[in-house]
Amino acid sequence: MGAGSLVRGWPGLGPWYDASRGHGNWVPPRKEALGLEPALQTRGANSLQRRLPQGIIIGVRKGGTRALLEMLALHPQVAAAHAEVHFFNREENYRRGLGWYRQQMPFSGPGQLTMEKTPGYFSSPQAPERVRAMDPAMRLLLIVRDPVERLVSDYTQILHNRRARCKPYPPLERLLLRGDRGLNTRYKAIQRSLYALHLAPWLAAFPPAHIHVVDGGGLIREPLPELRRVEQFLGLTPSLRPDNFYFNQTKGFYCLQAGAHQHCLDESKGRPHPPITEQLLEQLCTYFSAHNEHFFSLVGRTFNWC
Ligand code: A3P
C-alpha cells in the first residue's frame, strides 16, 4: 500500500481509509500522519500504542453494530478495531490472554478511547464475567433492533453465506415452523432475538449505568441523535456533525463523510430481506411480545417494535 493511498478523513486524530482497498477497509493511522512529534511517540504513556478497549459494542448481531462502530470511528477521540475480535466468547482466543487481545486493538494516542465490536459477546454466557474481570469500569454499548427484523436479517446473512459457498439452505419458514406444531423456538435466530434473556447476565456483572442501549432503528432513520447520546455516554466531546452523514438513495441508508471522503457500508449491510407471510409475522410478534416487555423493563425504555 503506497502512502498516497491513505486519505485523510478528519483533522487531527481521525479515521483513515485505505482507499486502494475500497470502502470499508479501515487502516490504523500512520503515526507521522497524526501530527504527533516523533519524540512523543516513544514516550511511554504519551505514545501511540495499542491499548485495551475502554468501550465495547457487545451486540446485538445484525442490530447495526458495524454502522455504529464506523460512525463512532469518525470521532477524533475514538480508535476502533476494524475486525471483530471474539476474545471473550471464543475459548481459543481467550486462552491467548490479554496480551493477545491488546495486539488486536488499533494504535491510539493519549486521550483517545479504544473500541471494539463483537456482537457474539451479547449471547455468550462467559463474556459478561470475563469483561468485568478485565475492567469493571468498561462502557458497554448494546444496539438493538426489532427482534423480528433482526431474526430475518440473521437468516438472510446465513443464506447469503451458504449460497456463496454453493451450499443449500432451507427457506426461512421451514426453519421457523415445526410443521403444524407452531414456532420452532429453538431456532438459533429466534433465540438470539430474546434480548432480555441475554441481557440479564450483563446486568448481573455491570451496573446499568455502564450499559447504553442504542436504538438500531433510530440509527438507520437518523444517525446523529443516537450518536450524540453515545458520545455523552462515552464521555466524548460532542464532535460528530450533521455533515458527517448523508443519505445515499442507491444504498437506501445513510453513508459516512469525513472531509472529502465518502464511505458507505459494504454490500453485506442493508441486504434485501426475503418476504414473510402476514400469518408468520403475527406469530413471531405474539411470541416476542412478552420477551420484549421484559427487555423494556430491564432497560427502562420502550421501543416501537411489532
Ligand atoms: P440488514 O442487512 O438486514 O438490513 P450488523 O452490522 O450488526 O451486522 O447489522 C447489520 C444491519 O445494520 C443491516 O441489516 C442494516 O439494516 C443496519 N444498518 C444500520 N445503519 C446502516 C447503514 N448506515 N448502512 C447499512 N446498514 C445499516
UniProtKB/TrEMBL annotation:
Source organism: Chelonoidis abingdonii (Abingdon island giant tortoise)
Pfam family, one: Sulfotransfer_1
Molecular functions (GO terms): [heparan sulfate]-glucosamine 3-sulfotransferase activity
InterPro entries, A to Z: NST/OST (IPR037359), P-loop_NTPase (IPR027417), Sulfotransferase_dom (IPR000863)
Binding site for 3'-phosphoadenylyl sulfate: K62, G63, G64, T65, R66, R145, S153, Y254, K269, G270, R271, P272, H273
Family: Belongs to the sulfotransferase 1 family.
Keywords, alphabetical: Disulfide bond, Glycoprotein, Transferase
This protein's record includes keyword Chaperone: no
Ranges where the Sulfotransferase domain occurs: 54-269
Enzyme class: transferase
Transferase as UniProt keyword: yes
Enzyme active site: K62 (for sulfotransferase activity)
Protein name: Sulfotransferase
Superkingdom, taxonomy of origin: Eukaryota
Cystines in this chain: C255-C264
